[in-house]
Amino acid sequence: IDPQPIQSTEDFDITSDNSGNVVLTAYKGNGGDVVIPDGVTEIAPHVFDLIMNPNGITITSVYIPDSVKIIGEYAFLSCHSLDGGLASVRMSSNIEKIGESAFDNCIYLTDVTFDEIPAHNIKIGDKAFAYCEKLERCDLYGLSCTLGKDVYIGTSLVKNKTLEKIIEDNKAAITEEIYSIIREAEKVRYDIREPELEIVSIT
Length: 203
Description:
3 helices; 13% helix; globular; disordered N terminus
């Protein structure tokens, strides 16, 4: 997503405190391509959540500026309507935490990208991108991340890659526990009959 002029702050409810936290707490715009105002440090839980905000507005993309460090739980849960939905996310390069189910069930989401790949560790909560069925590019994949459970379950990232490729892409972060989760997710979700694989020590 190319940088765009900041949308009117009238489209958002934003709060701040004495600690310097600037929290986006509500979205009141008309959908389409959404640009989070620069200076926001946190997107609160449920802000763009279709289940909590069933107003029929269709968001097609979101530009998250580098000021954002936290995306709250369920912030973009099921962010779609009958007419389409969230398809692309430009992610903050300073993101530190993506909450549980933050983008869960965004069925039109295809890519999550950075302008500049971060070098720091990022905490990604359980099911953060679960069941994003069309997700094919996620620049978070393979970075130094602390992963929760089932982060990518039900996505094209899991469906279209062999277990060997997933391990190769995630050497820095993957553990035997996560390996088992991915393997079982593939077998259950897609009814995969996988051959016997040799599990190598990952260092």
